[in-house]
Amino acid sequence: MGLQLRICLVFVSLFYLQTTASAQEHAYQIGLLGFYNLENLFDTIDTPDVNDTEFTPAGPKHYDTEMYLDKLGNLSQVISEVGADLSPDGVAILGVAEIENRSVLEDLVKQPALASRNYQIVHYDSPDRRGIDVGLLYNPKYFTVAESRSVPVMIYDATDNSRIYTRDILLVGGDYQGEQLYVMVNHWPSRRGGEARSAPLRNAAALICKNLSDSLRLAAPNAKIVIMGDLNDDPVSPSVADVLQAAGKINKVRPGGFYSPMWSFFRQGIGTTAYRDAWSLFDQLVISDNWLDNEQAGYRFYQAYIYNPNHLVQKTGHFMGYPFRTFAGDTYLGGYSDHFPVYMAIIKPKF
User: Fold this and answer.
1) What order of strands is seen across the sheet that includes strand 120-123?
2) Alpha carbons 60 and 178: distance in angstroms, whole number
3) What is the largest CA-CA distance in the chain?
């Protein structure tokens, strides 16, 4: 199945689901949580001890202020659009990856397309060798942060046992309109060196998420959990299916287990990033089982989405049909990101 046809299938599915949600607006409150890999959102400043020379005016990309401002404008446009047909405020919580520092997020949320939402930021510096971090944007109208911390991913090279420095996991806990919620934002180790060879690194990151979740559930049994991020693995990969034990079908979710709402997209050949004419679904949302109780008075899971409208798709050239990226190598394309955003709708009965 071609890339364009797969994208069309997503739109058909979205049309039906969004129509259904609109028909139920009188009965439900709708909330949105999402994730977006921002594809190297760097400022233009050469920061000491950060591997950012590539993204400076003197670097090979000749990355300048005009490019940076274009990037901010493009990304803020996308974020403003995600889920806006379901909720006028868009995503209440958005995890992000591939950001250089807190400063770029501050610049992002001040963009005209986002400024009215008053997004707040949670961010910690990571020891990643590429100089990139993860972060969280949240709308205080819906979510109040009670705690946050950066959780190191301690992984080691199999040949010499030296530490491999990667992105920390961002853990944020708080109150989402009266319900306790924990969000983990991830950017797991890449497939550099090959999928099989690098798999133990992602399995290790997944195990940290699993152990964190187990601890949270012991301390707060009613809290809801969302694990989100660029996992550099698919929903069927061992890190997700075996280590996290995230089931792809609701009737297969164990008590205390996880559900992978992105699994059905993957089974249809639909993805969030493409390489060598093949889609991968690395950008994922994994949710705790207590989101699935349809009889509860609180928020429950409704539907997951991939946001891939036509303007986010490359129209010509070698990457035609792929997500419209900012750079191809050192060539500036002026796009958005090499990943599509993902998000989910949660609904709560109105009384």
Assistant:
1) 120-123, 133-138, 93-99, 28-41, 342-349, 300-306
2) 49
3) 60
Q: How many domains does the chain have?
A: 1
pLDDT in tens, the chain (351 residues): 555 545 444 444 444 444 444 434 458 999 999 999 999 999 999 988 788 999 999 999 999 999 999 999 999 999 999 999 999 999 999 999 999 999 999 999 999 999 999 999 999 999 998 899 999 999 999 999 999 999 999 999 888 999 999 999 999 999 999 999 999 999 999 998 899 999 999 999 999 999 999 999 999 999 999 999 999 999 999 999 999 999 999 999 999 999 999 999 999 999 999 998 899 999 999 999 999 999 999 999 999 999 999 999 999 988 999 999 999 999 999 999 999 999 999 999 987
List the domain range (segments joined by +) for residue 304. Answer: 3-24+33-349
Q: What is the pTM of this model?
A: 0.92
CATH number for the domain spanning 275: value is 3.60.10.10
